[in-house]
Amino acid sequence: MIKFQKYIMLSVLAIIGLLTSCESNFKDVQRINSVAFSPVGRSENINLKYTDSGKVKAILVSPLMLDYSQLEYGFNEFPKGVDVTLIDNQQKNSYIKSDYAITYANTDIIDLQGNVKITSNDGKVLETDQLYYDQKNEWFYTEKYFKFTDGQGGFLEGPGIDFSKDFKIFNMQSNKGQINKVED
Q1: What's residue 44's pLDDT?
Q2: Taking a C-beta distance cutoff of 8 angstroms, is the pair 71, 85 a contact?
Q3: pTM for the full model?
């Protein structure tokens, strides 16, 4: 009986040892297969002003920016969101706010995510969960549900929209809304 208990105890210990070594090997395999990268730069409480010909055109404020420019497809990540003020030639401000953002260096695309809200200088507001901005073409687009209000009681909403940065040209996939006629 003692030999049998000893045999069972050794068997249990062998199985535990085997499982432990498998777990260790499994973690090593996971580590090998994972893509690990770290930012080359970290900036906190940034207040970045973009100027052109001596005039401030945009102000970006964010609590945190992580710089991954060392990667083949480099990007900057704003994991705690952004507040952007755009200033036009007549010194009128429009505002962009999101909970998270990524800017891709090679494509000049900005990906805004989470409670994205754009407020134009004339009271127009667009809200969505995700919005892309093509800096080269000055064009916004999303496939997500959006709601646009014109500041005069009218609204449009639905899935998918693309539009110019000045809100003058809109393309929508499917929408519903109410447009108020402006009397002359």
Answers
A1: 96
A2: no
A3: 0.73
